[in-house]
Amino acid sequence: KEKMYSLFLILFVALASADTSSTSCTFCTFIVRTAETLIQNNNTEEKVLSFIANACALVPAPYGDLCTQEVEQYGPFIIQLIIEKETPEVICGQLSLCNAS
Fold it and tell me: What is the pTM of this model?
């Protein structure tokens, strides 16, 4: 859990320095990268989604709500794209949270 808190502290620093238009993209790519790491460590889809959902509960509003909504709505889709080796930027672009490059 301490590692999770450290990751979210880093995220908050990144969000604080990001402008409003890029905040959702920054947050999404962070979550996808975290999910990638969990999958690479042989966690099940259920464990990955549970970990991220629990992490969302630690994030202050409005980002915690956005995180929870995205995980509930797109979690399995995100996991599938990670397994297919899509990048966080591509995945978040498909979710309309990042601009297409």
Answer: 0.70
